[in-house]
Design a protein that fits this description.
Blueprint: H1 3-11, H2 16-24, H3 31-58, E1 59-61, E2 68-70, H4 75-82, H5 85-127, H6 133-142, H7 147-161, H8 167-177, H9 181-196, H10 200-254, H11 262-287
Length: 291
C-alpha cells in the first residue's frame, strides 16, 4: 500500500541512518518494506488514538473498583485534556519502530562481545596448526558454541563462496556492516595482518589477551553494580518496610485513623515488597553477562 511512498521518501535522502541500523541489526527486510510498514502502522495507531479519545470522553479510568466508570464532568474540558492522544499515539508508534533496529543492533552487539574473547582464543588455537585462514572461519561458522558470532562469520563465508571475494575483501566488507565495534576492529586488524603477511597466531594471541582483559573488567563492573544494588535492596526492601510497619503500629496504637485496616496495610506492604523484588531481579537479569 505504501511502497511507492516509502521509495519516494528514501530517494529524497530520508532514513539513511535507519538503513544502516537495519543492516547492522540483521533484519531480514528491505528498507523500502520497513518504511512502508512504519507508515501503515502509524496510520493504524492514528485510528487507535481516535478511538481512545472517544472512549475517554465518556469514560474514566481509576485505580479502585470500578476501574472504568462514566465521566460526569464537562465534555469540552475533557476533550481538551485527551485530544493530544491523536498525535501522541501515532508519533510514539513511529518513533518506536524507528529506534527498534538500533536497539536490536545493540542487543546483538552485546551478545557478540560476550562471545568474542572465547572465539578468538579458539581461532588462536586453530591458527597455530598453520591452517589456511579461510578454514578458520569455516570451523568457527560450523560450531554452535557462538550463536551470535556465528552469523557474522557466515557473512564472511558468503562473501567468499557466493560473491567470489578474497578473504581480505570479505573481512573489510563485513567489518562495515557488523553490529559489534569490537568485531569490526578484529576483522579490520585481521585483514591488515593477512594482507601484510603477518603471523595470524600472534595476532590472535594479542587480540585474545586484550579482549580477555576487557571481559574481566566487565565482570568486575557487574560485580560492583551488584554490590551497590545489594545495599540499596537491604535499605529499600528489608529495612524500609519494617520501619513503615512499626510506624503504622504506633499510629494505630495512638488511635489516629489512617483510612486502612491492619489487613489492608499488610496486603499493601506485601504487594510493594513483591513488586520491588521483581524489579530488582529483572534489573540484575538484564545487567548480568551471559558468560
Amino acid at each position: 500500500m505504501f511502497l511507492n511512498k516509502s521509495i519516494e521518501y528514501i530517494n529524497k535522502g530520508y532514513f539513511r541512518s535507519l538503513a544502516i541500523q537495519i543492516k547492522k541489526a540483521n533484519l531480514d527486510v528491505l528498507l523500502e518494506s520497513y518504511v512502508a510498514m512504519m507508515i501503515l502502522t502509524s496510520l493504524l495507531s492514528f485510528a487507535v488514538g481516535i478511538f481512545l479519545v472517544i472512549f475517554l470522553l465518556f469514560f474514566s479510568i481509576g485505580f479502585v473498583w470500578p476501574i472504568v466508570s462514566f465521566y460526569e464532568g464537562s465534555i469540552l474540558l475533557r476533550l481538551v485534556k485527551v485530544i493530544g492522544l491523536i498525535i501522541i499515539v501515532p508519533a510514539a508508534t513511529f518513533f518506536a519502530l524507528y529506534i527498534y533496529p538500533s536497539t536490536e543492533r545493540s542487543s546483538i552487539a552485546r551478545r557478540i562481545d560476550q562471545e568474542l574473547p572465547f572465539a578468538v582464543i579458539h581461532m588462536s588455537a586453530i591458527s597455530g596448526s598453520g591452517i589456511e585462514p579461510s578454514e578458520i572461519f569455516k570451523i568457527i561458522g560450523l560450531t554452535r558454541e557462538y550463536p551470535a558470532l556465528r552469523r557474522e562469520i557466515r557473512k564472511v563465508l558468503n562473501q567468499i563462496n557466493l560473491y567470489g571475494y578474497d578473504l581480505v575483501t570479505a573481512l573489510n566488507n563485513v567489518s562495515k556492516s557488523t553490529p559489534s565495534e569490537k568485531l569490526s576492529e578484529l576483522f579490520g586488524g585481521l585483514s591488515t595482518t593477512i594482507y601484510s603477511g603477518g603471523s595470524l597466531q600472534t595476532f590472535f594471541e594479542k587480540r585474545a589477551e586484550t579482549l580477555l582483559i576487557s571481559y574481566r573488567l566487565e565482570r568486575e563492573k557487574f560485580t560492583k553494580v551488584a554490590e551497590t544494588f545489594m545495599d540499596i535492596y537491604i535499605s529499600v526492601v528489608i529495612a524500609a518496610p519494617m520501619i513503615l510497619m512499626l510506624l503504622l503500629i504506633m499510629i494505630s496504637v495512638s488511635g489516629i485513623s489512617v483510612g486502612f485496616g491492619p489487613g489492608q496495610i499488610s496486603l499493601l506492604i506485601i504487594l510493594v515488597i513483591s513488586l520491588m523484588n521483581i524489579l530488582f531481579l529483572a534489573f540484575l537479569h538484564v545487567k548480568q553477562p551471559s558468560y
